[in-house]
Write a structure and sequence with these properties.
Largest sheet of chain B: 7 strands, parallel
Order of helices and strands of chain B: EHHEHHEHEHEEEHEHEHHH
Number of strands of chain A: 22
Strand content of chain B: 5-15%
Mean pLDDT of chain A: 92
Number of domains of chain A: 3
Low-confidence stretches of chain B: none
Helix content of chain B: 40-55%
CATH superfamily of the largest domain in chain A: Thiamin diphosphate (ThDP)-binding fold, Pyr/PP domains
Strand content of chain A: 15-25%
Number of strands of chain B: 9
Largest interface: A-B, 49 and 52 residues
Number of helices of chain A: 13
Radius of gyration of chain B: 20 Å
Structural class of chain B: alpha/beta
Strand order of the largest sheet of chain A: 11-10-12-13-15-14-20
CATH architecture of the largest domain in chain A: 3-Layer(aba) Sandwich
Oligomer: heterodimer
Distance between the termini of chain B: 49 Å
CATH architecture of chain B: 3-Layer(aba) Sandwich
Mean pLDDT of chain B: 94
Chain lengths: 458, 343
């Protein structure tokens, strides 16, 4: 039996990578532990080790090939006594990966053409005729930080692995090189301490960007986010300001289970004194992070690990800064309003496409900012559609969806033809098993179901 | 620069600050001002004019006066909720502090912070924090800003023996030493964290040694003697200001009153308190020195006390007559206004 070398998954969210270099050639003898190739993911360059002894029989994917899906057969090793004739080249690439399947859209569902795009049309912050470039959310965030650090000497980035490692999720790539160790600072693993340090530095006139490797770890530090950063302006009668950004990935990643998969949006959005932003598109990630850094208040900026690699149009402007507190209508429609934010927008847009096939035109609103919450835009839409579903990748109780529903009841009751429905994750800790995680997660299918219900079409 | 090692202060000439006569009288005036302020605050609390929690500093005056008189203009201060004394020692107007205690519009936080949450950016005073230990990380951040801005400032982060058992204190020690931050960690060891004595709360009671695992030198100082406190301040500040990284000063002190106004202080004997008052009171100790050195006479000190009482009476009067904040103040000072966007 020949030994199949497959493209490995090198992180919980990796779906594909670049086979950048082969370090062996056909006919080479290799031992277990030898490095066969270098693989570049969107986060790092990793080495592919041989797990067996043998001879390289055939290389099936050439070096330099981009977008090699996880579990693609990349090479075949021959065991002792085997020859090239033993190779069954028809070995099926790529194999179904448990990992990629979890997220409901394995590789074939992700091509750009098929992905419903969030529309930037009609954005008053983008002048007509502005050129667009396609960029990942990750790079947009990096550019936002770099631009603001160039503009303002008091802005600095602090957190775990932000400097020499280039960011646990590669968001801060290149910043250390440009700005040096004085302004891009690796901390010990010490969330409570460095968050307090950041807030103190902000009191004293600096503008820290505090990166949490994930917001799950910010629970260690939440006292400083709320008691120190959010409240001190009020308690000091306006004397102390705390211009600080707390940012990092929030919400479920993939297959990392309960302690690493939680959405904290509703927690922070409940606190007066904080502003809370959760962008979906690359353009919003850039424009709103720049706004957050410039804002004189503490801003909790919630990113999403799954979205880091997603590309979308970013306007090529010298200084693209968006207003905080404005929702964006990412798809216009007349029959029902779907309100969402961050990764929920992706599911909502998918649901809208599915619904369009059944003659229901959904308007999709990306809240973008959760505090302040732009209910004006939501209510205007509901006055037009008379129906609303709030789709949120979060637990249902005391969620942003609960808040939006409640506010619609208070302020738009007479325009509603059906009760507002919330579509969320299941009300359980996040499970690890692939099938259970899929059941737990918010999905386009469940949004479609809810829309049909409020449209009395089920 | 080589770092001094952890040590208890031994009595030697340089451990006692050689103060001029003017300095002696100024230390005395400041300590007495704090004492009289706190006595009056206690009285006003009893009259229902001050609400909520009110933690008095009586007994600990030498600590803050000995340290704050050694600071420079660019330095900054942060402390916990037992903060009235620190504010007065920073030169903040007693009227604004007292009016904050009564929750009036002329209070330093417009009546919105209260006893535990007061600030004065004009005096480099960063609070006034109600969460035990939070000021240590925040103060480390203020020190970070001093270093970042290269303004030659140092930050004094005060905390108690109770806060010394909080995890974030050690996270802060680690970063402060790692990055050579100009911060003086002042542990005001008044021997009781609310009702729990140091012995009952701390596996190792030599708090000045708590930085050893981080290479931070610590010194234990008689916090009831303002001249010893000041001497410790001189050497520690010089070391920190010259880039030597943080220093820990454990100030051995004592509070005469309960933890807060609502604390009956059943966890210690009346005799223990009386003994401290009789034998180690910081104001009496300094008074004896002043009289011995003939820096001033009994009559001069009596006249000074009278002036201070008048100042405090005026502050109390002001704090009672200042109006409550307007209802519209409920919704102000939550967010700072962003500057106009540049597009």
């Amino acid at each position: 039996m020949t030994i199949e070398i497959l493209m490995p998954a090198l992180s919980p969210t990796m779906e594909e990578g670049t086979l950048s270099k082969w370090l062996v050639k056909e006919g080479d003898k290799v031992a277990s532990g030898d490095i066969l190739a270098e693989i570049e993911t969107d986060k790092a360059t990793m080495e592919l080790e041989s797990i067996d002894d043998g001879t390289v029989g055939k290389i099936l994917v050439e070096e330099g090939t981009e977008g090699v899906a996880v579990n693609t057969l990349v090479a075949v090793l021959l065991e002792e006594g085997e020859s090239e004739a033993d190779i069954d080249v028809k070995a099926p690439p790529p194999k179904e990966s448990g990992d990629a399947a979890v997220r409901a859209e394995p590789v074939e569902a992700r091509p750009e053409a098929k992905k419903p795009a969030a529309s930037l049309a009609g954005d008053p912050d983008i002048p007509d005729g502005t050129e667009m470039k396609s960029q990942t959310v990750r790079d947009a965030l990096r550019d936002a930080m770099a631009e603001e650090m160039r503009r303002d000497e008091t802005v600095f980035l602090i957190g775990e692995e932000v400097a020499e490692y280039q960011g646990a999720y590669k968001v801060s790539q290149g910043l250390l090189e440009e700005f040096g160790a004085r302004r891009v600072i690796d901390t010990p693993i010490t969330e409570h301490g460095f968050t307090g340090l950041g807030a103190g530095a902000a009191f004293a006139g600096l503008k820290p960007i505090v990166e949490f490797m994930t917001f799950n770890f910010a629970m260690q530090a939440i006292d400083h986010i709320i008691n120190s950063a959010a409240k001190t302006r009020y308690m000091s009668g306006g004397q102390i300001t705390c211009p600080i950004v707390f940012r990092g990935p929030n919400g479920a990643a993939s297959r990392v289970a309960a302690q690493h998969s939680q959405n904290y949006a509703a927690w922070y959005a409940a606190v007066p004194g904080l502003k809370v932003i959760a962008p979906y598109s690359a353009a919003d990630a850039k424009g709103l992070l720049k706004a957050a850094i410039r804002d004189p208040n503490p801003v909790v900026f919630l990113e999403n690990e799954i979205l880091y690699g997603d590309s979308s149009d970013v306007p090529e402007m010298d200084d693209y800064v968006l207003p905080i507190g404005k929702a964006r209508i990412v798809r216009e429609g007349s029959d029902v309003t779907i309100v969402s934010y961050t990764i929920g927008v992706r599911e909502s847009l998918k649901a809208a496409e599915m619904l369009a096939g059944e003659g229901i035109e959904a308007e999709v609103i990306d809240l973008r900012s959760l505090r302040p919450l732009d209910m004006e835009t939501v209510i205007a839409s509901v006055k037009k559609t008379n129906r609303c579903v709030v789709a949120e990748e979060n637990w249902p109780q005391c969620s942003i969806a609960s808040e939006v529903s409640s506010r619609l009841m208070e302020d738009a009751f007479d325009w509603l033809d059906a009760p507002v429905l919330r579509v969320t994750d299941a009300d359980t800790p996040t499970p690890y098993a692939a099938n259970l995680e899929k059941l737990w997660l918010l999905s386009a299918d469940r949004i479609v179901e809810a829309v049909k219900k409020v449209s009395y079409r089920d | 620069m080589a770092k001094a090692s952890t040590a208890k202060t031994k009595s030697g000439a340089k451990d006692v600050y050689q103060a001029s006569k003017d300095e002696l009288l100024e230390f005395y005036r400041q300590m007495l001002l704090i004492r009289r302020f706190e006595e009056r605050a206690g009285q006003m609390y009893g009259m229902g004019l001050i609400g909520g929690f009110c933690h008095l500093y009586i007994g600990q005056e030498a600590v803050v006066v000995g340290l704050q008189t050694a600071t420079e203009d660019q330095d900054s201060v942060i402390t916990g909720y037992r903060d009235h004394g620190h504010m007065l020692a920073c030169g903040i107007d007693a009227k604004a502090v007292m009016a904050e205690l009564t929750g009036r519009c002329d209070g330093i936080s417009k009546g919105k912070g209260g006893s535990m949450h007061m600030f004065s950016t004009d005096h480099g005073f960063y609070g006034g924090h109600g969460i035990v230990g939070a000021q240590v990380s925040l103060g480390t951040g203020i020190a970070f800003a001093h270093k970042y801005k290269e303004d030659n400032g140092i930050c004094l982060a005060y905390f108690g023996d109770g806060a010394a058992n909080q995890g974030q204190v050690y996270e802060s020690f680690n970063m402060a030493e790692l990055w050579g931050l100009p911060v003086v960690f002042v542990i005001e060891n008044n021997q009781y964290a609310m009702g729990t004595s140091v012995k009952r709360s701390s596996a190792a009671t030599a708090l000045y040694r708590r930085g050893e695992g981080y290479n931070i030198p610590g010194r234990q100082v008689d916090g009831m003697n303002v001249l010893k406190v000041r001497a410790a301040a001189e050497s520690a500040f010089a070391e920190v200001r010259s880039g030597g990284g943080p220093v820990i000063l454990e100030m051995m002190t004592y509070r005469y009153r309960g933890h807060s106004m609502s604390d009956p202080a059943k966890y210690r004997s009346k005799e223990e308190v009386k003994k401290m008052r009789d034998e180690q009171d910081p104001i009496t100790q300094l008074k004896d020195i002043i009289l011995k050195l003939k820096a001033a006479g009994e009559d001069d000190l009596k006249a000074l006390d009278k002036d201070i009482k008048a100042e405090i009476a005026a502050a109390a009067e002001f704090a009672q007559n200042s109006p409550e904040p307007g209802a519209d103040e409920l919704y102000t000072d939550i967010y700072a206004k962003p500057k106009e966007r540049s597009l």
